[in-house]
Design brief:
alpha+beta, about 220 residues, 8 helices
Length: about 220
């Protein structure tokens, strides 16, 4: 196989003071990020969603296969279908599928099987993980490190939305295969995360929780 051509790295070196200032500013920005379940129905221009998806697409991926597909939905009828199907799965989860310790862990967050935000939020964006792709001649081509790659892309998507000034939530009803049918996606794409996206409702509130300190999430040698 012929190696891909290489091009010079575009790298801008910064002074240490500037690096520290940027590091602190970005941490402050991201530390204000919260998962939101109360959305306004205020419209969000599609070009903002496009830029967030493009940012997600800058994520590294196994063998550069980019095994993700972000499907953006603003159609009210489709959002309604997604809500009905998601709530059906969530009802089953909250009434038998989830073990007691899981329900106990969720209790402080105040969540249940009702998911009105799936209709209220102006956009739903679903990240599908592609188990394989296709070569130019149509032959099946295996993708590598699909879960890891999509996880990184979704993290960048969340960061991009917060940087724009929008809010979101990582929603993962289980199972999620109903999304393939509603959104017309092929079977080699697996729903990974469902993101409602928009502005927070004026009355939006979030749980009073705290993030772990540096010493709790790191080790140094």
């Amino acid at each position: 196989m012929t190696p891909s051509p290489h091009i010079p790295l575009k790298y801008q070196e910064r002074s240490l003071p500037e690096m520290r200032a940027r590091a602190g500013a970005f941490y402050t920005l991201m530390n204000a990020r919260r998962s939101v379940r109360s959305f306004s129905d205020r419209p969000v221009p599609g070009d903002l969603i496009e830029k967030a998806i493009l940012t997600a697409g800058t994520a590294p991926s196994g063998a550069h296969r980019q095994p993700w597909r972000f499907v953006a939905v603003s159609d009210p009828d489709i959002k309604r279908q997604v809500r009905i199907a998601a709530e059906a799965e969530e009802y089953e989860s909250y009434h038998g599928r989830m073990p007691p310790e899981w329900l106990e862990a969720l209790a402080p967050l105040g969540t249940d099987w009702h998911k009105p935000f799936l209709e209220t939020a102006p956009w739903l964006v679903v990240c599908f993980a592609e188990t394989h792709g296709h070569d130019s001649d149509g032959r099946k081509r295996k993708n590598y490190y699909v879960q890891e790659s999509c996880g990184i892309a979704c993290g960048l998507f969340i960061a991009a939305l917060h940087n724009i000034g929008l809010v979101t939530l990582t929603h993962t009803p289980s199972p999620m295969r109903f999304l393939n049918g509603i959104l017309g996606r092929p079977q080699h794409e697996r729903p990974f995360v469902l993101f409602p996206v928009g502005y927070p409702a004026a009355s939006a509130a979030v749980p009073d929780i705290h993030r772990k300190e540096l010493e709790e999430i790191s080790a140094w040698h």
